[in-house]
Protein backbone atom coordinates (compact mmCIF):
# COMPACT_ATOMS: atom_id res chain seq x y z
CA UNK A 1 0.00 0.00 0.00
CA UNK A 2 2.66 2.48 1.07
CA UNK A 3 4.71 1.34 -1.92
CA UNK A 4 1.83 2.16 -4.21
CA UNK A 5 1.54 5.63 -2.69
CA UNK A 6 5.31 6.10 -3.02
CA UNK A 7 5.47 5.14 -6.67
CA UNK A 8 2.24 6.97 -7.43
CA UNK A 9 3.57 10.23 -6.04
CA UNK A 10 6.97 9.78 -7.68
CA UNK A 11 5.36 9.21 -11.08
CA UNK A 12 3.01 12.14 -10.59
CA UNK A 13 5.90 14.44 -9.70
CA UNK A 14 7.92 13.25 -12.68
CA UNK A 15 4.97 13.72 -15.01
CA UNK A 16 4.42 17.21 -13.63
CA UNK A 17 8.04 18.07 -14.37
CA UNK A 18 8.49 16.31 -17.67
CA UNK A 19 5.18 16.38 -19.53
CA UNK A 20 5.33 20.08 -20.48
CA UNK A 21 8.84 19.59 -21.86
CA UNK A 22 7.87 16.47 -23.74
CA UNK A 23 4.83 18.19 -25.24
CA UNK A 24 6.74 21.22 -26.46
CA UNK A 25 10.08 19.79 -27.54
CA UNK A 26 8.93 17.94 -30.67
CA UNK A 27 7.85 21.29 -32.12
CA UNK A 28 11.55 22.07 -32.60
CA UNK A 29 11.39 19.72 -35.56
CA UNK A 30 8.21 21.22 -37.03
CA UNK A 31 8.22 21.85 -40.77
CA UNK A 32 5.77 24.74 -40.44
CA UNK A 33 6.46 28.01 -38.68
CA UNK A 34 3.86 27.81 -35.93
CA UNK A 35 4.04 26.35 -32.46
CA UNK A 36 0.97 24.18 -32.88
CA UNK A 37 -0.02 20.57 -33.28
CA UNK A 38 -0.51 18.73 -35.54
CA UNK A 39 2.98 19.22 -36.94
CA UNK A 40 3.32 19.92 -40.65
CA UNK A 41 6.19 17.47 -41.09
CA UNK A 42 9.69 16.75 -39.87
CA UNK A 43 12.49 19.22 -40.54
CA UNK A 44 15.76 20.46 -39.12
CA UNK A 45 15.48 23.85 -40.79
CA UNK A 46 14.94 25.74 -37.52
CA UNK A 47 18.20 24.33 -36.22
CA UNK A 48 19.90 25.59 -39.36
CA UNK A 49 18.24 28.96 -38.85
CA UNK A 50 19.61 29.22 -35.29
CA UNK A 51 23.16 28.49 -36.33
CA UNK A 52 23.15 30.83 -39.29
CA UNK A 53 21.35 33.70 -37.61
CA UNK A 54 23.91 35.96 -35.93
CA UNK A 55 21.47 37.03 -33.26
CA UNK A 56 21.24 33.58 -31.64
CA UNK A 57 24.88 32.59 -31.92
CA UNK A 58 25.99 35.94 -30.55
CA UNK A 59 23.63 35.57 -27.59
CA UNK A 60 24.91 32.04 -27.05
CA UNK A 61 28.55 33.16 -26.96
CA UNK A 62 27.67 36.07 -24.69
CA UNK A 63 25.94 33.70 -22.29
CA UNK A 64 28.87 31.34 -22.34
CA UNK A 65 31.45 34.07 -21.72
CA UNK A 66 29.40 35.67 -18.99
CA UNK A 67 28.66 32.34 -17.30
CA UNK A 68 32.35 31.46 -17.43
CA UNK A 69 33.43 34.77 -15.95
CA UNK A 70 30.68 34.64 -13.33
CA UNK A 71 31.74 31.11 -12.42
CA UNK A 72 35.36 32.08 -11.85
CA UNK A 73 34.48 35.20 -9.88
CA UNK A 74 31.79 33.30 -7.94
CA UNK A 75 34.17 30.49 -7.02
CA UNK A 76 36.76 33.00 -5.84
CA UNK A 77 34.28 34.97 -3.75
CA UNK A 78 32.26 32.01 -2.43
CA UNK A 79 35.20 29.66 -1.96
CA UNK A 80 37.37 32.18 -0.15
CA UNK A 81 34.41 33.23 2.00
CA UNK A 82 33.70 29.62 2.97
CA UNK A 83 37.31 28.85 3.89
CA UNK A 84 37.52 32.06 5.87
CA UNK A 85 34.22 31.54 7.67
CA UNK A 86 35.26 28.01 8.68
CA UNK A 87 38.12 29.53 10.69
CA UNK A 88 35.88 31.82 12.76
CA UNK A 89 33.98 31.10 15.95
CA UNK A 90 30.51 29.64 16.09
CA UNK A 91 28.54 32.87 16.60
CA UNK A 92 30.38 34.80 13.91
CA UNK A 93 29.92 31.84 11.58
CA UNK A 94 26.14 32.08 11.81
CA UNK A 95 26.13 35.82 11.15
CA UNK A 96 28.58 35.64 8.23
CA UNK A 97 26.76 32.68 6.68
CA UNK A 98 23.51 34.63 6.82
CA UNK A 99 25.08 37.64 5.14
CA UNK A 100 26.82 35.64 2.44
CA UNK A 101 23.72 33.63 1.58
CA UNK A 102 21.43 36.69 1.49
CA UNK A 103 21.60 37.17 -2.33
CA UNK A 104 19.70 33.88 -2.59
CA UNK A 105 16.85 35.20 -0.48
CA UNK A 106 16.43 38.67 -1.97
CA UNK A 107 13.98 38.56 -4.94
CA UNK A 108 15.92 38.73 -8.20
CA UNK A 109 13.84 41.67 -9.40
CA UNK A 110 15.15 43.67 -6.43
CA UNK A 111 18.69 42.56 -7.17
CA UNK A 112 18.18 43.48 -10.83
CA UNK A 113 16.94 46.98 -10.04
CA UNK A 114 19.74 47.51 -7.54
CA UNK A 115 22.43 46.46 -9.98
CA UNK A 116 20.91 48.43 -12.84
CA UNK A 117 20.90 51.57 -10.74
CA UNK A 118 24.33 51.07 -9.16
CA UNK A 119 26.06 49.94 -12.36
CA UNK A 120 24.40 52.77 -14.27
CA UNK A 121 26.16 55.24 -12.00
CA UNK A 122 29.46 53.38 -12.28
CA UNK A 123 29.19 53.13 -16.03
CA UNK A 124 29.13 49.34 -15.95
CA UNK A 125 25.57 48.99 -17.19
CA UNK A 126 25.25 46.90 -20.34
CA UNK A 127 28.91 45.87 -20.21
CA UNK A 128 30.28 42.36 -20.06
CA UNK A 129 31.89 43.00 -16.68
CA UNK A 130 28.68 44.35 -15.18
CA UNK A 131 26.85 41.12 -16.02
CA UNK A 132 29.74 38.96 -14.85
CA UNK A 133 29.86 40.77 -11.53
CA UNK A 134 26.10 40.63 -10.99
CA UNK A 135 25.93 36.94 -11.85
CA UNK A 136 28.98 36.23 -9.71
CA UNK A 137 27.18 37.71 -6.74
CA UNK A 138 24.17 35.50 -7.46
CA UNK A 139 26.37 32.41 -7.87
CA UNK A 140 28.75 33.02 -4.97
CA UNK A 141 26.27 31.92 -2.25
CA UNK A 142 25.84 28.59 -4.02
CA UNK A 143 29.60 28.10 -4.17
CA UNK A 144 29.82 29.21 -0.56
CA UNK A 145 27.23 26.66 0.58
CA UNK A 146 28.67 23.75 -1.35
CA UNK A 147 32.24 24.48 -0.24
CA UNK A 148 31.03 24.88 3.37
CA UNK A 149 29.35 21.48 3.18
CA UNK A 150 32.55 19.98 1.84
CA UNK A 151 34.71 21.60 4.52
CA UNK A 152 32.31 20.63 7.32
CA UNK A 153 32.59 17.01 6.19
CA UNK A 154 36.38 17.01 6.55
CA UNK A 155 37.87 15.28 9.57
CA UNK A 156 39.33 18.14 11.67
CA UNK A 157 42.11 15.79 12.76
CA UNK A 158 43.57 15.91 9.23
CA UNK A 159 44.48 19.57 9.61
CA UNK A 160 45.88 18.91 13.10
CA UNK A 161 47.85 15.95 11.76
CA UNK A 162 49.35 18.10 9.02
CA UNK A 163 50.25 20.75 11.59
CA UNK A 164 51.94 18.21 13.84
CA UNK A 165 53.94 17.04 10.82
CA UNK A 166 55.33 20.55 10.47
CA UNK A 167 53.10 22.10 7.80
CA UNK A 168 52.33 25.81 8.00
CA UNK A 169 48.75 27.00 7.72
CA UNK A 170 49.04 27.86 4.03
CA UNK A 171 50.75 24.56 3.20
CA UNK A 172 47.92 22.76 4.98
CA UNK A 173 45.34 24.71 3.00
CA UNK A 174 46.89 24.02 -0.41
CA UNK A 175 47.90 20.40 0.13
CA UNK A 176 45.31 19.00 2.51
CA UNK A 177 42.16 21.12 2.80
CA UNK A 178 41.82 22.24 -0.80
CA UNK A 179 42.32 18.85 -2.48
CA UNK A 180 39.83 17.28 -0.09
CA UNK A 181 37.28 20.06 -0.55
CA UNK A 182 37.73 19.98 -4.34
CA UNK A 183 34.40 18.22 -4.99
CA UNK A 184 32.67 21.08 -3.15
CA UNK A 185 34.51 23.66 -5.26
CA UNK A 186 33.64 21.82 -8.49
CA UNK A 187 29.98 21.41 -7.61
CA UNK A 188 29.88 25.07 -6.58
CA UNK A 189 31.51 26.09 -9.86
CA UNK A 190 28.90 24.18 -11.85
CA UNK A 191 26.08 25.71 -9.81
CA UNK A 192 27.50 29.17 -10.42
CA UNK A 193 27.84 28.45 -14.14
CA UNK A 194 24.28 27.17 -14.58
CA UNK A 195 22.85 29.96 -12.43
CA UNK A 196 24.41 32.55 -14.71
CA UNK A 197 23.64 30.64 -17.88
CA UNK A 198 19.91 30.42 -17.03
CA UNK A 199 19.50 33.81 -15.43
CA UNK A 200 16.87 36.12 -17.00
CA UNK A 201 15.70 38.79 -14.60
CA UNK A 202 18.97 40.50 -13.68
CA UNK A 203 20.24 40.08 -17.25
CA UNK A 204 17.11 41.82 -18.55
CA UNK A 205 18.00 44.84 -16.46
CA UNK A 206 21.69 44.88 -17.31
CA UNK A 207 22.12 43.50 -20.84
CA UNK A 208 22.55 45.87 -23.76
CA UNK A 209 21.75 44.72 -27.34
CA UNK A 210 25.42 43.75 -27.78
CA UNK A 211 25.75 41.89 -24.50
CA UNK A 212 22.37 40.18 -24.61
CA UNK A 213 22.32 36.63 -23.26
CA UNK A 214 20.56 33.57 -24.57
CA UNK A 215 17.71 33.56 -22.00
CA UNK A 216 17.11 37.27 -22.66
CA UNK A 217 17.09 36.68 -26.42
CA UNK A 218 14.69 33.82 -25.87
CA UNK A 219 12.45 36.03 -23.82
CA UNK A 220 12.50 38.70 -26.51
CA UNK A 221 11.79 36.11 -29.20
CA UNK A 222 8.79 34.92 -27.23
CA UNK A 223 7.32 38.40 -27.38
CA UNK A 224 8.14 39.19 -31.02
CA UNK A 225 7.76 36.10 -33.12
CA UNK A 226 6.50 32.78 -31.78
CA UNK A 227 8.55 30.47 -33.98
CA UNK A 228 9.96 26.96 -33.54
CA UNK A 229 13.42 28.58 -33.24
CA UNK A 230 12.49 29.32 -29.65
CA UNK A 231 11.81 25.68 -28.93
CA UNK A 232 15.08 24.75 -30.60
CA UNK A 233 16.94 27.12 -28.28
CA UNK A 234 15.02 25.75 -25.30
CA UNK A 235 15.91 22.21 -26.35
CA UNK A 236 19.60 23.08 -26.67
CA UNK A 237 19.55 24.82 -23.31
CA UNK A 238 17.96 21.76 -21.70
CA UNK A 239 20.60 19.52 -23.25
CA UNK A 240 23.37 21.73 -21.89
CA UNK A 241 21.76 21.66 -18.44
CA UNK A 242 21.47 17.89 -18.54
CA UNK A 243 25.10 17.62 -19.61
CA UNK A 244 26.13 19.81 -16.68
CA UNK A 245 23.99 17.80 -14.25
CA UNK A 246 25.57 14.60 -15.48
CA UNK A 247 29.03 16.16 -15.17
CA UNK A 248 28.25 17.13 -11.59
CA UNK A 249 27.05 13.63 -10.74
CA UNK A 250 30.18 12.18 -12.32
CA UNK A 251 32.47 14.53 -10.41
CA UNK A 252 30.74 13.68 -7.15
CA UNK A 253 31.17 9.97 -7.73
CA UNK A 254 34.86 10.66 -8.37
CA UNK A 255 35.21 12.53 -5.09
CA UNK A 256 33.78 9.64 -3.10
CA UNK A 257 36.29 6.78 -3.06
CA UNK A 258 34.69 3.34 -3.14
CA UNK A 259 34.94 1.54 0.19
CA UNK A 260 35.59 -2.15 0.02
CA UNK B 1 66.34 19.32 34.25
CA UNK B 2 64.70 16.47 32.44
CA UNK B 3 63.91 16.27 28.74
CA UNK B 4 60.26 17.26 29.04
CA UNK B 5 58.87 19.07 32.07
CA UNK B 6 55.17 19.55 32.58
CA UNK B 7 54.72 22.01 35.42
CA UNK B 8 51.44 22.57 37.23
CA UNK B 9 49.31 22.55 34.11
CA UNK B 10 45.63 23.46 34.49
CA UNK B 11 43.07 23.34 31.72
CA UNK B 12 39.52 24.66 31.86
CA UNK B 13 36.82 24.25 29.24
CA UNK B 14 34.44 26.93 30.45
CA UNK B 15 33.72 26.00 34.05
CA UNK B 16 34.74 22.40 33.50
CA UNK B 17 38.26 21.61 34.70
CA UNK B 18 39.83 18.98 32.45
CA UNK B 19 43.33 19.14 34.01
CA UNK B 20 44.21 20.13 37.58
CA UNK B 21 47.80 20.85 38.51
CA UNK B 22 49.42 18.24 36.30
CA UNK B 23 53.19 17.94 36.76
CA UNK B 24 55.38 15.31 35.13
CA UNK B 25 59.10 14.99 34.39
CA UNK B 26 59.67 12.81 31.39
CA UNK B 27 63.20 11.44 30.88
CA UNK B 28 64.71 11.42 27.40
CA UNK B 29 64.26 8.17 25.52
CA UNK B 30 61.67 6.75 27.89
CA UNK B 31 58.37 5.11 27.06
CA UNK B 32 55.76 6.82 29.21
CA UNK B 33 52.08 5.92 29.28
CA UNK B 34 49.21 8.10 30.45
CA UNK B 35 46.72 5.63 31.90
CA UNK B 36 43.25 6.51 33.10
CA UNK B 37 39.55 5.93 32.59
CA UNK B 38 37.68 7.73 29.83
CA UNK B 39 37.24 11.43 30.64
CA UNK B 40 40.24 11.59 32.96
CA UNK B 41 42.01 14.18 30.77
CA UNK B 42 44.52 12.06 28.85
CA UNK B 43 43.66 13.39 25.41
CA UNK B 44 43.55 16.93 26.75
CA UNK B 45 47.09 16.59 28.11
CA UNK B 46 48.27 15.09 24.83
CA UNK B 47 46.68 17.93 22.83
CA UNK B 48 48.43 20.45 25.06
CA UNK B 49 51.75 18.67 24.49
CA UNK B 50 51.10 18.65 20.73
CA UNK B 51 50.26 22.36 20.82
CA UNK B 52 46.63 22.08 19.67
CA UNK B 53 45.29 23.44 22.93
CA UNK B 54 46.62 26.22 25.14
CA UNK B 55 46.92 25.83 28.91
CA UNK B 56 44.86 27.74 31.48
CA UNK B 57 47.85 27.73 33.84
CA UNK B 58 51.29 26.21 34.19
CA UNK B 59 54.02 25.65 31.64
CA UNK B 60 55.75 23.07 29.51
CA UNK B 61 59.53 22.97 29.07
CA UNK B 62 61.38 21.04 26.38
CA UNK B 63 65.08 20.68 27.20
CA UNK B 64 64.76 23.77 29.37
CA UNK B 65 62.99 25.85 26.70
CA UNK B 66 59.45 27.09 27.38
CA UNK B 67 57.25 25.69 24.59
CA UNK B 68 53.87 26.33 26.21
CA UNK B 69 52.77 28.75 23.47
CA UNK B 70 54.76 27.30 20.56
CA UNK B 71 52.69 26.43 17.47
CA UNK B 72 52.26 22.70 16.76
CA UNK B 73 54.15 22.93 13.44
CA UNK B 74 57.19 24.35 15.22
CA UNK B 75 57.42 21.64 17.90
CA UNK B 76 58.80 18.74 15.90
CA UNK B 77 56.65 16.25 17.82
CA UNK B 78 55.15 13.27 16.02
CA UNK B 79 51.54 12.38 16.78
CA UNK B 80 49.55 9.23 16.08
CA UNK B 81 45.83 10.00 16.24
CA UNK B 82 43.19 7.72 17.68
CA UNK B 83 41.52 7.58 14.24
CA UNK B 84 44.96 7.68 12.48
CA UNK B 85 44.03 10.84 10.44
CA UNK B 86 45.72 9.58 7.28
CA UNK B 87 45.32 11.88 4.27
CA UNK B 88 42.71 10.03 2.19
CA UNK B 89 43.78 11.61 -1.12
CA UNK B 90 47.40 10.50 -0.80
CA UNK B 91 49.00 7.09 -1.21
CA UNK B 92 50.82 5.44 1.69
CA UNK B 93 54.09 6.73 0.24
CA UNK B 94 52.83 10.31 -0.05
CA UNK B 95 51.36 10.23 3.44
CA UNK B 96 54.68 9.19 4.91
CA UNK B 97 56.62 11.56 2.65
CA UNK B 98 54.46 14.55 3.68
CA UNK B 99 56.52 15.73 6.69
CA UNK B 100 59.71 15.40 4.62
CA UNK B 101 58.23 17.40 1.73
CA UNK B 102 57.22 20.08 4.21
CA UNK B 103 60.84 20.15 5.35
CA UNK B 104 62.01 20.50 1.72
CA UNK B 105 64.13 17.38 1.66
CA UNK B 106 65.48 16.26 -1.72
CA UNK B 107 63.55 13.71 -3.74
CA UNK B 108 66.26 11.06 -3.23
CA UNK B 109 66.43 11.58 0.50
CA UNK B 110 62.63 11.40 0.77
CA UNK B 111 62.51 8.15 -1.22
CA UNK B 112 65.24 6.59 0.92
CA UNK B 113 63.83 7.63 4.28
CA UNK B 114 60.25 6.67 3.44
CA UNK B 115 61.41 3.27 2.22
CA UNK B 116 63.43 2.72 5.40
CA UNK B 117 60.62 3.64 7.77
CA UNK B 118 58.04 1.59 5.81
CA UNK B 119 60.38 -1.38 6.14
CA UNK B 120 60.59 -0.79 9.86
CA UNK B 121 56.79 -1.07 10.16
CA UNK B 122 56.64 -3.93 7.60
CA UNK B 123 54.66 -2.02 5.00
CA UNK B 124 57.24 -1.72 2.21
CA UNK B 125 55.08 -3.62 -0.26
CA UNK B 126 52.01 -1.43 0.17
CA UNK B 127 53.45 2.02 -0.55
CA UNK B 128 51.26 2.60 -3.65
CA UNK B 129 47.97 1.87 -1.86
CA UNK B 130 45.50 4.48 -0.70
CA UNK B 131 44.60 4.48 3.02
CA UNK B 132 41.08 3.14 2.39
CA UNK B 133 42.62 0.07 0.76
CA UNK B 134 44.36 -0.92 4.02
CA UNK B 135 43.21 -2.80 7.10
CA UNK B 136 42.97 -1.04 10.47
CA UNK B 137 46.28 -2.45 11.67
CA UNK B 138 48.04 -1.39 8.47
CA UNK B 139 46.58 2.12 8.67
CA UNK B 140 47.82 2.38 12.23
CA UNK B 141 51.34 1.46 11.12
CA UNK B 142 51.23 4.03 8.28
CA UNK B 143 50.27 6.65 10.86
CA UNK B 144 53.16 5.51 13.02
CA UNK B 145 55.61 5.64 10.11
CA UNK B 146 54.40 9.12 9.14
CA UNK B 147 54.86 10.38 12.70
CA UNK B 148 58.37 8.90 12.97
CA UNK B 149 59.89 9.50 9.53
CA UNK B 150 61.01 13.07 10.33
CA UNK B 151 62.82 11.93 13.48
CA UNK B 152 60.67 13.86 15.97
CA UNK B 153 61.99 14.75 19.41
CA UNK B 154 58.91 13.17 20.95
CA UNK B 155 56.25 10.76 19.72
CA UNK B 156 52.72 11.15 21.09
CA UNK B 157 50.23 8.29 20.66
CA UNK B 158 46.53 8.74 21.46
CA UNK B 159 45.04 5.31 22.15
CA UNK B 160 46.66 3.89 19.01
CA UNK B 161 45.37 0.38 19.65
CA UNK B 162 41.82 1.10 20.71
CA UNK B 163 40.23 0.39 17.32
CA UNK B 164 41.99 -2.94 16.83
CA UNK B 165 41.01 -6.43 17.93
CA UNK B 166 42.70 -8.06 20.89
CA UNK B 167 45.15 -10.33 19.08
CA UNK B 168 46.36 -7.62 16.72
CA UNK B 169 46.71 -5.27 19.65
CA UNK B 170 49.16 -7.52 21.46
CA UNK B 171 51.17 -7.96 18.26
CA UNK B 172 51.35 -4.22 17.67
CA UNK B 173 52.29 -3.60 21.30
CA UNK B 174 55.34 -5.81 20.81
CA UNK B 175 56.18 -4.03 17.54
CA UNK B 176 55.84 -0.63 19.16
CA UNK B 177 58.12 -1.64 22.01
CA UNK B 178 60.61 -2.94 19.51
CA UNK B 179 60.52 0.26 17.44
CA UNK B 180 61.00 2.28 20.60
CA UNK B 181 64.09 0.25 21.46
CA UNK B 182 65.56 0.69 18.00
CA UNK B 183 64.94 4.40 17.57
CA UNK B 184 65.42 5.59 21.13
CA UNK B 185 62.82 8.33 20.61
CA UNK B 186 60.84 9.45 23.67
CA UNK B 187 57.30 8.01 23.46
CA UNK B 188 54.23 9.22 25.32
CA UNK B 189 51.36 6.79 24.86
CA UNK B 190 47.77 7.20 26.01
CA UNK B 191 45.55 4.30 26.93
CA UNK B 192 42.74 3.23 29.23
CA UNK B 193 43.94 -0.38 29.03
CA UNK B 194 46.08 -1.13 32.09
CA UNK B 195 47.48 -4.35 30.58
CA UNK B 196 48.73 -2.42 27.55
CA UNK B 197 50.27 0.19 29.83
CA UNK B 198 52.05 -2.44 31.97
CA UNK B 199 53.22 -4.34 28.92
CA UNK B 200 54.89 -1.45 27.11
CA UNK B 201 55.87 1.33 29.44
CA UNK B 202 58.96 2.30 31.40
CA UNK B 203 56.85 4.69 33.44
CA UNK B 204 53.09 5.03 33.84
CA UNK B 205 51.20 8.15 34.90
CA UNK B 206 47.82 7.13 36.29
CA UNK B 207 45.26 9.88 35.71
CA UNK B 208 41.89 10.43 37.35
CA UNK B 209 39.60 13.47 37.16
CA UNK B 210 42.29 15.58 35.51
CA UNK B 211 44.95 14.79 38.12
CA UNK B 212 48.02 12.59 38.11
CA UNK B 213 47.35 10.03 40.84
CA UNK B 214 50.75 8.39 40.61
CA UNK B 215 53.73 8.43 38.25
CA UNK B 216 55.81 5.31 38.67
CA UNK B 217 57.13 2.14 37.09
CA UNK B 218 54.60 -0.60 36.37
CA UNK B 219 56.07 -2.70 39.17
CA UNK B 220 55.81 0.04 41.78
CA UNK B 221 52.30 0.97 40.67
CA UNK B 222 51.29 -2.62 41.16
CA UNK B 223 53.13 -3.34 44.39
CA UNK B 224 53.08 0.14 45.94
CA UNK B 225 49.95 1.97 44.80
CA UNK B 226 49.56 5.16 46.77
CA UNK B 227 45.80 5.46 46.50
CA UNK B 228 42.72 3.32 46.41
CA UNK B 229 42.09 4.48 42.85
CA UNK B 230 45.47 3.24 41.60
CA UNK B 231 45.18 -0.05 43.49
CA UNK B 232 41.76 -0.62 41.98
CA UNK B 233 42.58 0.54 38.44
CA UNK B 234 45.92 -1.24 38.02
CA UNK B 235 45.51 -4.99 38.20
CA UNK B 236 43.09 -7.05 40.24
CA UNK B 237 42.90 -6.29 43.93
CA UNK B 238 41.05 -6.90 47.19
CA UNK B 239 40.52 -3.72 49.16
CA UNK B 240 39.46 -3.84 52.81
CA UNK B 241 38.15 -0.79 54.61
CA UNK B 242 38.78 -0.54 58.34
CA UNK B 243 40.00 1.57 61.22
CA UNK B 244 43.34 1.86 62.98
CA UNK B 245 43.27 1.26 66.73
CA UNK B 246 46.20 1.71 69.08
CA UNK B 247 46.85 -1.20 71.37
CA UNK B 248 49.42 -0.30 73.92
CA UNK B 249 52.55 0.71 72.07
CA UNK B 250 51.51 -1.06 68.84
CA UNK B 251 48.70 -0.32 66.43
CA UNK B 252 46.18 -2.59 64.82
CA UNK B 253 44.08 -2.38 61.64
CA UNK B 254 40.59 -3.66 62.31
CA UNK B 255 38.60 -4.76 59.28
CA UNK B 256 35.39 -6.68 58.90
CA UNK B 257 36.37 -10.21 59.97
CA UNK B 258 40.06 -9.84 60.83
CA UNK B 259 42.71 -7.79 62.58
CA UNK B 260 46.14 -6.94 61.32
CA UNK B 261 48.97 -5.69 63.49
CA UNK B 262 50.70 -2.71 61.98
CA UNK B 263 54.38 -1.83 62.03
CA UNK B 264 55.13 0.56 64.88
CA UNK B 265 55.91 3.57 62.74
CA UNK B 266 52.78 3.26 60.53
CA UNK B 267 50.46 6.24 60.26
CA UNK B 268 46.73 5.67 60.52
CA UNK B 269 45.69 3.18 57.85
CA UNK B 270 42.29 3.56 56.19
CA UNK B 271 42.42 0.66 53.76
CA UNK B 272 44.56 -2.33 53.01
CA UNK B 273 45.03 -3.90 49.59
CA UNK B 274 45.91 -7.50 48.98
CA UNK B 275 46.58 -8.85 45.49
CA UNK B 276 44.87 -12.13 44.49
CA UNK B 277 48.18 -13.94 43.88
CA UNK B 278 49.25 -13.27 47.48
CA UNK B 279 46.30 -15.19 48.88
CA UNK B 280 46.51 -18.94 49.35
CA UNK B 281 43.41 -21.10 49.12
CA UNK B 282 42.62 -24.66 50.27
CA UNK B 283 39.51 -26.75 50.80
CA UNK B 284 38.26 -26.33 54.35
CA UNK B 285 38.46 -30.08 54.94
CA UNK B 286 42.06 -30.31 53.73
CA UNK B 287 44.48 -31.36 56.44
CA UNK B 288 47.26 -28.78 56.05
CA UNK B 289 44.85 -26.05 54.96
CA UNK B 290 46.02 -22.61 53.95
CA UNK B 291 48.71 -21.13 56.17
CA UNK B 292 49.31 -17.43 56.79
CA UNK B 293 49.16 -14.61 59.33
CA UNK B 294 45.52 -14.08 58.59
CA UNK B 295 43.09 -16.89 57.92
CA UNK B 296 39.52 -16.47 56.73
CA UNK B 297 36.82 -18.98 55.87
CA UNK B 298 34.33 -18.81 53.05
CA UNK B 299 32.82 -20.65 50.13
CA UNK B 300 33.62 -20.62 46.44
CA UNK B 301 31.17 -18.27 44.70
CA UNK B 302 32.55 -18.49 41.17
CA UNK B 303 35.65 -19.66 39.35
CA UNK B 304 37.34 -18.88 36.06
CA UNK B 305 39.53 -21.71 34.87
CA UNK B 306 42.42 -20.75 32.58
CA UNK B 307 44.45 -23.97 32.36
CA UNK B 308 47.51 -22.84 34.28
CA UNK B 309 45.44 -21.67 37.23
CA UNK B 310 41.96 -20.64 38.31
CA UNK B 311 40.70 -17.29 39.51
CA UNK B 312 38.23 -17.72 42.37
CA UNK B 313 35.71 -15.38 43.77
CA UNK B 314 35.24 -16.38 47.42
CA UNK B 315 32.18 -15.38 49.42
CA UNK B 316 33.18 -14.38 52.97
CA UNK B 317 30.72 -14.50 55.92
CA UNK B 318 30.53 -10.70 56.14
CA UNK B 319 28.91 -10.63 52.68
CA UNK B 320 31.95 -9.43 50.75
CA UNK B 321 33.84 -11.36 48.14
CA UNK B 322 37.55 -11.96 47.77
CA UNK B 323 39.51 -12.62 44.58
CA UNK B 324 42.27 -15.19 44.70
CA UNK B 325 44.24 -17.42 42.37
CA UNK B 326 44.50 -21.12 43.07
CA UNK B 327 46.19 -24.12 41.53
CA UNK B 328 44.05 -25.83 38.96
CA UNK B 329 46.02 -29.03 38.63
CA UNK B 330 42.99 -31.10 39.75
CA UNK B 331 40.53 -28.78 38.03
CA UNK B 332 38.82 -25.75 39.54
CA UNK B 333 36.89 -26.05 42.81
CA UNK B 334 33.13 -26.20 42.39
CA UNK B 335 30.99 -23.27 43.51
CA UNK B 336 29.64 -23.86 47.03
CA UNK B 337 32.75 -25.71 48.27
CA UNK B 338 33.82 -24.46 51.74
CA UNK B 339 37.38 -23.14 51.66
CA UNK B 340 39.97 -21.46 53.85
CA UNK B 341 42.02 -18.54 52.54
CA UNK B 342 45.13 -17.07 54.09
CA UNK B 343 47.60 -14.25 53.52
CA UNK B 344 50.55 -12.63 55.23
CA UNK B 345 50.89 -9.21 56.85
CA UNK B 346 54.00 -8.46 54.82
CA UNK B 347 52.02 -8.77 51.54
CA UNK B 348 49.39 -6.24 52.59
CA UNK B 349 49.61 -2.82 50.97
CA UNK B 350 48.68 -0.09 53.44
CA UNK B 351 46.81 2.98 52.22
CA UNK B 352 46.67 6.07 54.38
N1 LIG C 1 36.82 20.74 23.65
C1 LIG C 1 36.25 20.45 24.84
N2 LIG C 1 35.27 21.22 25.34
C2 LIG C 1 34.71 20.93 26.53
N3 LIG C 1 35.03 19.91 27.31
C3 LIG C 1 36.00 19.08 26.88
C4 LIG C 1 36.66 19.31 25.62
N4 LIG C 1 37.59 18.34 25.45
C5 LIG C 1 37.51 17.55 26.54
N5 LIG C 1 36.57 18.00 27.39
C6 LIG C 1 36.23 17.39 28.70
O1 LIG C 1 37.42 17.25 29.43
C7 LIG C 1 37.44 16.02 30.11
C8 LIG C 1 38.67 15.23 29.74
O2 LIG C 1 38.54 14.81 28.41
P1 LIG C 1 39.65 13.98 27.64
O3 LIG C 1 40.95 14.65 27.81
O4 LIG C 1 39.16 13.77 26.24
O5 LIG C 1 39.62 12.61 28.43
P2 LIG C 1 40.24 11.18 28.03
O6 LIG C 1 41.06 11.34 26.81
O7 LIG C 1 41.02 10.77 29.23
O8 LIG C 1 39.06 10.29 27.82
C9 LIG C 1 36.15 15.30 29.77
O9 LIG C 1 35.26 15.47 30.84
C10 LIG C 1 35.68 16.00 28.54
O10 LIG C 1 34.28 15.99 28.48
MG1 LIG D 1 40.78 10.33 24.81
Short structural summary:
The complex is a heterodimer of chains A (260) and B (352). Chain A is mainly alpha-helical and 260 residues long. Chain A has a single domain (61-255), classed as Orthogonal Bundle (MetI-like fold).
Written overview of the protein:
The complex is a heterodimer of chains A (260) and B (352). Chain A is mostly helical and 260 residues long. Chain A has 11 helices and no strands. The radius of gyration of chain A is 22 Å and the shape is globular. The mean pLDDT of chain A is 84. With 352 residues, chain B is α+β, with helices and mostly antiparallel strands. Chain B folds into 3 domains: 4-231, 3-Layer(aba) Sandwich (Rossmann fold), CATH 3.40.50.300; 237-273, no CATH class; 275-345, Nucleic acid-binding proteins (OB fold (Dihydrolipoamide Acetyltransferase, E2P), Beta Barrel). Helices cover 24% and strands 36% of the residues of chain B. Chain B contains 8 helices and 20 strands. In chain B, helix 2 packs across helix 3, helix 2 (92-102) runs parallel beside helix 4 (136-148) and helix 3 packs across helix 4 (136-148). At the A-B interface, helix 7 and helix 8 of A face strand 6 and helix 2 of B. Bound molecules: adenosine-5'-diphosphate and magnesium ion.
- CATH fold annotation of chain A: MetI-like fold
Total helices of chain A: the number is 11
Bound molecules: adenosine-5'-diphosphate, magnesium ion
* Uncertain spans of chain B: none
Largest interface: A-B, 20 and 28 residues
Topology, number of strands of chain A:
0
Alpha-beta content class of chain B? alpha+beta
Shape of chain A: globular
Mean pLDDT of chain B: 90
Instruction: Provide the number of structural domains of chain A.
Output: 1
| CATH fold label of the largest domain in chain B | Rossmann fold
> Percent helix among the residues of chain B?
10-25%
The span between the termini of chain B is: 31 Å
The largest beta-sheet of chain B arranges its strands as: 6-7-8-3-9-10
Provide the domain count of chain B: 3
